[in-house]
């Protein structure tokens, strides 16, 4: 590899780090608390390879021991401070960007095209969630190992193809042990070899795929041994697990369409997307059109013998495949799901922009620079959203104003910070966002707790016992075992909005649910007072 190609690697790596300098002061937010800061495997209290990602939540089906191992090493070297974790993510993103340059060159791109692919990947705003959020490391680490596996796997015509395939299968195993979505990588090995097989017989290609197939079986067996199941427990996300085949196909099309749209026009992005629009018929129809357009593009590239762009498109499809809900899993969609898939997308985009020219013309060069400038601006502007919990959910509400979950999470963070009432137009307070969460989705899974918090506010801060009682009753209508609402409603008996008999029944029901000792003692005292 010449010095010029290495210079592209260096530029992409440095560019990737510079774009995330303003993300380094970020803290631990949301899932970071469970999966990193409070994770006993990270703290050294339990094992790594014999535990799920969150040892107390095996039902989630998350087994990513290599990612957890990097967290543990970071903790051992630098303590449980967020800065070194964020720095690690930025450096890994730089490595991934560097590897995209190598990937593009390996797939047949010229130096300028390969450099552009790496720069596009480094700057793409869809990666902010994976890089600026500590738990996004699983995506980055899996992608780094996956790209290394592809490069080592090599071309069918390379020397020692079986030895290369065996070594690549080990890197593939490392990718899947970083995040389970990398399990699909052998599909790209197969497609790559079929596209570039030249005169090699199919039997030779099958032998090259055998090591990764064996590693895949071993990984599946290991997951079952550790988790007692292959994937997540369907009961934890019943509304996704109970979809029939047609509904799952429609959801997959909607996810494909949204993914392609955000890769083409990455705004607005969010840490949480309202799942309801993904189930709309319009979303599936648009996704179907996006899939058809992608297939037609692939056929056109095949006929035009644009092999680099075609292989990038195939990698995009394989990288996205695990997230199209062919099998049940927890989240409908997230930006971080596109990290590996975007490597192929960036290779294809760079190949289309610069074609086969070694020196792109001024118009194409100007277009590439404009695209990089737009991507970089969006990335730099979004990084601060991961500074703290309030910033994170304010950004989510801004980008997804109809998402009940985002409003609820922001309300909860404002409540914890003591910001219950209106502060300013940009900080409207917890009560406003609890009400918004109920307005946009009255029967959301968080509706009961929202009513509980609104009842607490109405009773304790406003002195409106009737309004408090209405909210507590609404909470219990949605969650009949919410003992906090039972206790708070019973406590309103002296104000005359709850009868003595009803208050006694509420307290007895609450005690039957085994509340924490402090609440149980309070319930017993109130019950004694009602008996006098």
**How much helix is in the residues?**
55-70%
Q: Count the strands?
A: 0
The biggest sheet, with number of strands, parallel, antiparallel or mixed sense and barrel status, is: none
Q: How far apart lie the N and C ends?
A: 89 Å
Number of domains: 2
Look at the structure and give the mean pLDDT.
Answer: 91
Our estimate of the beta-strand percent is under 5%
Rg on CA atoms, Å: 26 Å
Brief rundown of the structure:
The chain contains 25 helices and no strands.
Q: Can you characterise this structure?
A:
The chain has 532 residues and is mainly alpha-helical. The protein has 2 domains: 3-385, no CATH class; 401-531, Alpha Horseshoe (Serine Threonine Protein Phosphatase 5, Tetratricopeptide repeat), CATH 1.25.40. The chain is 67% helix and 0% strand. It has helices at residues 3-19, 31-37, 40-43, 65-78, 82-106, 111-123, 128-132, 137-153, 161-178, 185-195, 202-227, 238-241, 245-264, 281-303, 307-320, 339-354, 362-382, 389-399, 404-416, 430-440, 447-461, 465-478, 483-490, 500-512, 517-531. Helix 5 (82-106) runs parallel beside helix 8 (137-153), helix 6 (111-123) packs parallel to helix 17 (362-382) and helix 14 (281-303) runs antiparallel to helix 15 (307-320). The N and C termini lie far apart (89 Å). The mean pLDDT is 91.
Attribute tags:
532 residues; mainly alpha; Serine Threonine Protein Phosphatase 5, Tetratricopeptide repeat; elongated
